[in-house]
Structures are given as structure tokens and as C-alpha cells.
Amino acid sequence: MQKPWEGRFREKTQEFVEKFTQSVSFDKRLALEDIEQSLAHVKTLLRAKVLSQEEADTLKKALEEIKQDLQRGNFQLREELEDVHMNIEAELTRRIGELGGKLHTARSRNDQVATDERLYIKREIKECIRHLKDMRRELIRLAENSLEIVVPAYTHLQRAQPIRLSHYFLAYREMFLSDELRFVDAYRKVDALPLGSGAVAGVDFPLDRFFTAEELGFRTLVRNSIYATADRDYILDTLYACATVGTHLSRMAEDLILWSTEEFGFVELPDRLCTGSSIMPQKKNPDILELIRGKTGRLYGNLISLFTVLKGLPMAYNRDLQEDKEPLFDSLDTVKACIKGMTLVLEGMSVRAERMMPQLGDPMVATDLANYLVNKGLPFREAHRTVGNLIAYLISEGKSLKDLNLKDLKEFSSLFEEDALKLLDPKWVADRRKTYGGTAKEELLRQIEIAKREEGI
User: Fold this and answer.
1) Would residue 225 show up in a list of annotated catalytic residues for this protein?
2) Does any domain span residue 409?
3) Can you give the CATH number for the domain in which 71 is found?
4) Residue-wise pLDDT tens digits, 44-90
5) Average pLDDT for residues 285-313, to the nearest whole number?
6) Confidence at residue 2, expressed as pLDDT on a 0 to 100 scale
7) Buried b (16+ CB within 10 A) or exposed e, 241-257
8) Which of 90, 105, 120 is the last residue of a domain?
9) Where would I find the Fumarate lyase N-terminal domain in this sequence (predicted)?
10) Under 8 Å between Cβ of 424 and 402
11) Domain range for residue 411?
């Protein structure tokens, strides 16, 4: 097949240029989307009386046959035809003759590729949201099963305050719920049809773009033809959503890597999800979690890569935009794999309450002792200093709060009474946090029920 643009040229394209400029090696992923939009474009051209009914029927039949060959793996794409669009057009022309060339009427590869990408992203975002929901359901299951486990919450990786472990799992569930909302927002922005914008200025055929949008399932149209072909914001939004999921996955991976060490021993990962060492027989490595943490860097890199491509482009379309696809495909593949990997870890890991609960430690109730004094009328700063002196005394004497009686407490403040001794029980302390979103058992039960309703459990 001759190249569609070679009429103006007097030299054959050099082989290096063909290899360097081709995109079919990666944009072949868009083949089914390209067929889908071509079928809609046929209907639009028929509606505009650019095609006869007979021509439209012939094109539709041939496109459906090519689609079947693609699905069966019987379609060989060729690099010398540059991209997926020209491969399909070449095959169409081979099968039905010159009529195949009519399909590109009122269409440029500029609005064609933008349409393919948007169709592809819409489908992929739905998959990402489905995977996120599966993972959140596992977090809710863990929250239900760990309601009676009280553990240290950490700030600065130092023991801070006692919480029920359910609270921890629900915190990540909230993160991944916000990630879904980012994907929903990206979907809303991508759900606009660019087809019919031509190369840059629109087209001079009476196309009913609203009809095309309805055929392809787009909510609305891209309103400006320059923006339609020059814009890749919809990909940036998608890459940002992927990168943020990666951030949250990486944080949880880091927690679980630490918690699975001998030093912590808070969780046990199943053998089937770990690997060993080629030299140290005793090793059991949390490789899935480490790779999730590592692959997050790729998600960031893909986002920055496209930002860098776009930042210096003059309006409108430039071939640089070909570089949008590999970061897009890689990020979507990577984030789906990472979510699935984390879901498997959450399904398979065992929580070791017998290792968690002994780590609570006396100092973790210090804030509650200070608040006790505040409720007795002492200004918070003075109460903070008083309890700080108490903790410093215990450290210097090698003692624990459990070693103290009411008389000892009164040495630091006469405001302490018998009821202050209840504050030495971390579980009792945790259940004092009854404010909306707190770690008290009754509040967590409410949060779990809401989460189950939201996730359709």
C-alpha cells in the first residue's frame, strides 16, 4: 500500500525513518477501539450522505471481519504502515478495494487517535475502579476481623497512641476510596468526543457529531477542534490518578514490609506470596510488596514524562504527542497489577495480635493523662508539661506506669484521683475516642457498616 501522504514526496521514505517514526508496535493496543470508532464514523458519513447505504454496508461488513481477525489473533500489523490506523485502512482497502479509502473522509489521524485513546481510557478506568473496590472489600473484612485488637498507632515511626487495628485498615480504605473518586473525575473529563474535529480546524462535511458521540457512548463533545487534537490533559489526569494510587499502595506496602520483619512480627505473609534467597536458606522475602513500592516510581515517571513532552509544544498537533501512549499503557498495566498484588497480600496475610498488643507501652496513654488534668481545670500546656515530667521520671527510674499507684500520681499533680488509674488501660483509652472518625469501638462499628453499604457488601 502506498503511504497516504506520499503524493507530495519524490523520494521513498528511508528505512530508519520508518522504524524511528512508527508507533504500531505499541498503538496496536488501540486496534479494537479504532474499529469501534470507524464503525460509528461509517454511520455518521451515511447520515451526512457522504456514503450510500450500499457503501456503508460494505464498509461495515469488512470492518466487522477485520475485528474478528484481530480478536482471533489472525491480523498481522506491519511497521512500514506507521500506525494502527493505517494498518486497518490498508487491510480494508485490500479486502474491498478503493471504497476502503472513503472511510477516512472527514477524519484525520489527529482526531482519530484522540478518540481511540479516550475510548481505551474509559474502559481501563472502569477496570481500575473494579480492582480498587475488590481491594477495599478486603480492607473492610480485615477491619471487621481485627476489631478487638488494640495496637500502637505511629507518628514519626514512634509509638503514639493506642488504636483499634480496624481503624488502621479503614484509614487505607478511605485512601483508596478517594483514589476511585480521582478516576471518576478523570473519566468525566475523558468522556468527550474529539472525532469530527479533523486535523485542527474542524471538517467541511455535514457531520452530526452529537450522533457520533451517542453511537460511541460519549457523554459530550470536545467543543474546540484545536483543543481536541492538541490536548492530552485527559491522559495527564489518568496518569495522576494512577500515580496517587501508587502512592497509597507504596505507603501500605512499606507498613506491611516493616510489620512482617522479625523485629515487628505484626503480620505473617503466606509462603505462596513470598520468595526466598539464592544464598540464605532462612530468608522469606516480601517481594510483591517491595515491587509495589518500587513500581510507584514508574507511575511518577510516566506522569512527569508526559508533562515534559507537553510543556513546550506549539499549538496544535505535533508528532511529539505520539509519546503519550507508552506512559499511558504502562501506568494502567502497572497500577492494575499493583492493586491486584496488594489485594492478594491482604487476602493471604495473618494478623499476629499476640505480637501487636504487647507493644502498646505505658507512654501511649500520656495524652489521656494530660487531658484528664485539663478536665480538672489545668491549662493544657501545663498539663502537658506535668505528664511529660512524669514520663521522664519513669524513664530515669526504669519504671512503668503500671508500677504507680494514686499516691505516686499525686506526687506530680494533686488533681489526679482514683478514676485516673483507668487511663492506664490502652483499650479503655482507645474507646474514649468517640468523636466522628475516631477509634472507639462503637464508632468503628458505625464506620464499618457504612463502608459495607458503600461497597455493596
Assistant:
1) no
2) yes
3) 1.10.275.10
4) 999 999 999 999 999 999 999 999 999 999 999 998 899 999 999 99
5) 97
6) 60
7) bbbbbbebbbebbebbb
8) 105
9) 7-301
10) yes
11) 359-454
Tell me, yes or no, if 350 is annotated catalytic: no
List the grid coordinates of 410. 499525686
Tell me: the pLDDT tens digits for 394-410?
889 888 877 888 888 88
The residue among 310, 342, 358 that closes a domain is: 358
Instruction: Please give the residue that has the higher pLDDT: either 14 or 254.
Output: 254
3-state secondary structure 70-136: HHHCCCCCCHHHCCHHHHHHHHHHHHHHHHHHHHHCCCCHHHHHHHHHHHHHHHHHHHHHHHHHHHH
Task: From the candidates 23, 156, 197, 413, give the one annotated as an active-site residue.
Answer: 156
* Residues 150 and 287 occupy one common structural domain: yes
- Calculate the average pLDDT of the chain: 94
CATH code assigned at 121:
1.20.200.10
Going by C-alpha positions, the residue among 313, 82, 112 that lies closest to residue 228 is 112
- 101 and 179 share a domain? no
Annotated catalytic residue, options 166, 277, 413, 414: 277
Q: How many domains are there within the chain?
A: 3
Kindly state whether residue 216 falls inside one of the protein's structural domains: no
- Of 207, 52, 178, 50, nearest to 115 (Cα)? 207
| C-alpha span between 288 and 205 (Å, rounded) | 54
